[in-house]
Design goal:
Blueprint: E1 3-12, E2 16-24, E3 29-33, E4 46-49, E5 54-57, E6 63-67, E7 73-77, H1 81-102
Antiparallel strand pairs: 1-2, 1-7, 2-3, 3-4, 5-6, 6-7
């Protein structure tokens, strides 16, 4: 587990937001429970794989949205700006590590992960700025390949 805690999750237009216990796991899932799980193997109420997800922060400085590759959406609200930013940072780091594991260092995914905030057209003062720390060594200790074109070259016989 990378991070856990209460966030408010929007349930529907009529029901509004409710406190849910969220867990960000090492295997790249954002899971939520009605309340903090007592047992470690307790089934979550819902979960989202973050591998190909997008994230948007909202102008109120406490809300953000996470949208999965299959268009599942979690609309979330933290207690304050600092907690929201901590969750966003943790999710970005989890996505970066997951992408680097999935592609085994064949290309650097850190530069491609971003929070979708249009700074030129958004005068709301969103102030979150984060650049993920990039790994420079592969798991076997070798250099990480950053040019994927070498993967498609025909080996010499």
């Amino acid at each position: 587990m990378l991070m856990e805690g209460y966030l408010k999750k929007k349930l529907s237009l009529l029901k509004g937001y409710r406190d849910q216990w969220f867990v960000l796991t090492k295997d790249g899932y954002l899971k939520y429970y009605v309340e903090k799980p007592i047992e470690e193997d307790q089934k979550p109420k819902g979960q989202m794989l973050l591998l190909l997800s997008d994230m948007n922060e909202k102008s109120d400085h406490v809300s953000f949205k996470v949208k999965s590759a299959n268009n599942n959406v979690f609309r979330l609200r933290a207690e304050n700006r600092e907690k929201r930013n901590a969750w966003i940072k943790a999710i970005i780091e989890a996505k970066t590590k997951l992408n680097n594991r999935m592609f085994k260092g064949f290309y650097d995914t850190g530069e491609r992960l971003q929070i979708n905030v249009d700074q030129e057209n958004d005068d709301t003062g969103c102030d979150f700025d984060y650049t993920p720390e990039l790994e420079t060594v592969s798991e076997d200790g070798g250099a990480i390949e950053t040019d994927i074109s070498s993967l498609f070259k025909t080996p010499k016989k």
